[in-house]
Amino acid sequence: MRHHPADDLLLAYATGTCDEAIGLVIATHLAFCAVCRQSVSLMEEIGGSLLEDLPPAPLAQTAFADTMARLENATPYARPVRTPSRDGTPEPLRSYLGGDLSAVRWRRMGPRLAYLPLFRRGGTRVKLLRGAPGTEVGGHSHRGMEFTLVLKGGFTDATGNYGPGDLQVADSSLSHSPVADAGEDCINLAVTTASLKFENFIQKIAGPLFGF
Amino acid sequence: MCLLRPKSPADQMIHRGSRPVEPAMLAHVATAAIPAFRPVLRRRPLRFKAMIGQPGPAELNALLAQVAATRDRAAFAALFAHFAPRIKSYLMRQGARPAQAEDLAQEAMLNLWRKAHLFDASKASAGTWLFTIARNLRIDALRREKRPELDAADFAPEPEPDPGDSMAMAKSEQRLRGALKILPPDQMRIVELSFFADKPHSQIAAELDIPLGTVKSRLRLAMSRLRAALGEMP
Fold first, then answer.
1. Predicted complex ipTM exceeds 0.90
2. Dist CA A123 CA B193 (whole Å)
3. What's the pLDDT at B17?
4. Do B219 and A16 touch (CB under 8 A)?
5. How far apart are CA A25 and CA A149, in angstroms?
6. A20 and B148 in contact by Cβ < 8 A?
7. B76 min Cα distance to partner chain A (Å)
């Protein structure tokens, strides 16, 4: 793996400042990357240390008694039981897909491209994209941010080559034409905070129809 | 969003170094809530000491283990006195109203009670564990979103816990605290605002009137110092 999230993104996940869409991208990278998992653990330790050093805020007189009353009916927490993934699709991605990556019901977008919208928050859209080997997505620039995390296969553009677990963060300064690598289909988790600006006339018209 | 947000970012700086203790606050928790447990506390002087002083990491771990093993209410009371006021403080800095922060702090302690058996002292300190609980409750309550969480079961099977690991954890926590204390103030400021301001880094940059690149590079520098202090590779 060559392309990791920068510290500010990992910290946004560790502090809980980032939104759910970015959180899903970072968490999915973490599922691939033990080094970044360790970084996030360190950041959480920093959070614990800062919490311990905070000046305590006075509680209501009844706070403890109220909590004890709430404990009366509390049952020990049980971890959710999950059926094991058959193709190694990690959490939390698997919950968002509703199952394994290999069982996704793709929506076709021409002969070589497929996609699956996952969720949308305001202008931010989260989707899966799948391109056959050698597929060119088409030159585009960005009105907002685009986060692309490779789940399978890989793609290449002017900024380099991206394989499973690699994250590309593109902003309005980047204009690129990603091409899926040879060998197997390239499957990405993609988050865009605004629509893309395609250079090609057909894609300019078709893009918004598919939510790009 | 935040009615009680301190007026200047400088007000959001947290106390560093020695922990400020507010005896009045601890005293009312103690007088309001502890009498029922006093006989138990008398038999166990260690815990009574924990109530009036600041319990250290080893004591907090021991108290959590007691809650997990026997649903020990006196141990829970000591953990409550230590953590609930700090969690409330954390949530108020994050923009929660006092009543909401209080309710979420209670909720966090309820989580501690229900999840104590999942706490693993070889993986995190009690403070870190409570931080993650409070953080997740905040995302849930204040933003009405859920936090995408990893499942530890997806990774290589965990080795059997080694009692030495929690010692190693306590040592690394000490080293981290030491390293945080000697972090250059401009880097520490960005780290604190990252945890407490609940704002994206672009907004922190705008409020401090420095370029976003400077915020990111200070963060990167801070993280590499802290990683080095813990002997981790960047």
1. yes
2. 26
3. 40
4. no
5. 7
6. yes
7. 9
